[in-house]
Write a structure and sequence with these properties.
Chain lengths: ~270, ~290
């Protein structure tokens, strides 16, 4: 279904992503882990074509995505939704308009400029918002919402695109543990119920282990691990993060459950 | 998705109904605004056209006549153009000098006015409205009015033009600088205040380093504007290339090649300074983070 072949990105002298190759046969929930600067974001941005690639190929359903240009490239971007760490919504527009932005690729520029969306689309947008539990916020401005709610609006925008792949770049990194759980569960449900492929950058091990079917580990731009969550032992994790004996998983955790074990950390998290 | 929405059918359809209502209202208002805009534009145009001496529709096909005549004559005497451009080069230098001097003095005066008129930074907070109104007045009076007045008093030449442009520049820069300075971080200023710095020291060492790139970019933009302004003031007797342009234009056919040479010079100058200042501005904003 999706095949990535020797994908490389160089910024000047620095190689951000170094010949990454993997294959996905059927829709799955895939987590990419690694410390910051490992090239996770660049990899996702290349998949969406927000960033061009220096070398290698991305093939999706027998189509070479890396070679698309102009309208074809935008068509691909509409099939491959992106969710950002900082939500990237238009803050001064209302929630439904932000969700309707998911249809921009299908609509003419003039119609969208005057905010003329078909009634079916508007109804569908509100249904998606309801599915994510934030339908009451429909008429509010996006900037008036909390971080967790904004991220769910961003997920709604992604769903409005009716994409084949959803890419999520650290979707929970700027959320508190409660909202992080809601957002991750929403992403998992989208995969389970709609059968969409979800590729998710995560910086915590336990989130990857809990929600993903497959985990890819990156370090300094290279792929250093590819396997099931069960194969992801503490030793492997130390390798991915380049850490020594002092590395403990709960130190990177944002899960509420994980924080309950060491009591001094619970105190810190709620301080 | 179906079973979830079926769970709370009334609530979702409520939200949908409300939102649709809101959208319909917004569309209605938007349509009405557009309609009013079009009606005003059309009626305004018709009024203006009725009052025009010649009428728009009678004159519209002649708009191209003057440029065509200039271009035709310039083409005929194409080989004279470099010589003419050389002839008018000293006048161009005079125009650029007027612009440079007036930009420099105007920006400095505008900087002082801006600092005195910015909330949180002003030396005398009660006098902020006074300094703001001063910049308003300086901005409101057109350069050409001040220049005409000064030419009447001081006689023709570059000095009245410099004063006129500098006053307008100070007014415009005063407003722009003050808006930039309003967004500056006050913590460094407080830090300097805590060591006993004077107001001038606080502004020069605490505020200026933060806003310098923006200030410079506004000052360079102003310089470009002032080149155009000083060329226009030449028309009313302030010297420089504008004066030469008026002479060659008003003497009609036979000297259109001179007009063409001056247009080329002006165009080249503005392109040149635009390129230089945009390159310099980019450098400044890029270098900001390092």
């Amino acid at each position: 279904m999706l095949q990535i072949d020797g994908l490389t990105k160089r910024f000047g002298q620095k190689t951000a992503v170094d010949a990454v190759s993997f294959k996905v046969e059927k829709p799955a929930m895939i987590g990419i882990i690694g410390r910051s600067g490992a090239g996770k974001s660049t990899l996702l941005r290349m998949l969406n074509r927000l960033t061009g690639s220096t070398d290698g190929a991305i093939v999706f359903q027998d189509r070479n995505v890396t070679e698309l240009k102009g309208a074809e490239k935008r068509r691909w971007q509409s099939e491959c939704a992106m969710i950002f760490q900082q939500f990237n919504l238009v803050p001064r527009m209302d929630v439904v308009s932000n969700v309707l932005h998911g249809t921009l690729n299908r609509r003419s520029t003039v119609a969208t400029m005057f905010n003329l969306y078909p009634q079916d689309d508007i109804h569908k947008a509100i249904e998606i918002l309801d599915r994510l539990g934030i339908a009451e916020q429909a008429a509010k401005r996006a900037e008036a919402l909390s971080g967790g709610q904004q991220q769910r609006v961003a997920i709604a925008r992604a769903l409005m695109q009716d994409p084949k792949i959803i890419l999520a770049d650290e979707p929970i990194a700027s959320l508190d543990p409660m909202n992080a759980q809601i957002v991750m569960e929403a992403l998992r449900r989208i995969h389970d119920e709609d059968g969409r492929m979800v590729i998710c950058n995560l910086h915590t091990l336990d989130t990857a282990r809990r929600y993903c079917d497959r985990v890819i580990g990156m370090r300094d731009g290279r792929m250093v691990f590819d396997g099931t969550p069960e194969q992801l032992t503490t030793g492997v994790a130390r390798d991915i993060y380049g850490a020594g004996e002092e590395f403990s998983e709960s130190a990177t955790s944002t899960e509420i459950g994980a924080l309950e074990t060491p009591p001094e950390q619970t105190a810190k998290a709620y301080a | 998705m179906a079973e979830i929405t079926a769970g709370a059918p009334t609530r979702v359809s409520d939200v949908q109904g409300h939102y649709m209502e809101m959208i319909q209202r917004k569309r209605l208002y938007g349509g009405l605004t557009l309609l009013i805009f079009i009606v005003l534009m059309v009626s305004g145009f018709m009024v203006a056209d009725g009052r025009n001496a010649g009428g728009f529709w009678d004159g519209v096909d002649k708009i191209g006549d003057y440029p065509a005549a200039v271009l035709a004559e310039a083409w005929e005497k194409f080989f004279d153009l470099p010589g003419l451009m050389l002839k008018y080069f000293p006048a161009l230098i005079e125009t650029i000098n007027i612009a440079a001097v007036s930009t420099l003095t105007g920006v400095l005066a505008g900087f002082v006015l801006a600092m005195l008129g910015t909330r949180g930074l002003a030396k005398w907070p009660r006098l902020i409205p006074v300094f703001r109104r001063i910049t308003d007045v300086m901005r409101a009076v057109p350069e050409i009015v001040i220049a005409l007045m000064l030419i009447f008093v001081l006689g023709g030449g570059p000095v009245p033009a410099v004063i006129a442009i500098a006053i307008h520049t100070a007014g415009a820069i005063g407003k722009l600088f003050s808006e930039v300075a309003e967004n500056a971080d006050l913590k460094p200023v407080e830090g300097l205040q805590s060591v006993g710095a004077t107001w001038t020291q606080r502004i020069l060492l605490g505020v200026l380093p933060q806003v310098a790139p923006n200030f410079l970019s506004y000052a360079l933009l102003r310089f470009e504007i002032n080149i155009r302004a000083s060329a226009i003031l030449g028309f009313v007797g302030a010297g420089g290339i504008g004066y030469e342009l008026r002479n060659s234009m008003s003497w009609g056919p036979g000297r259109f090649d001179e007009a063409a040479a001056i247009f080329v010079l002006l165009f080249a100058t503005i392109v040149f300074f635009d390129q230089v200042s945009s390159r310099y501005r980019n450098k400044l904003t890029e270098g900001q983070g390092q």
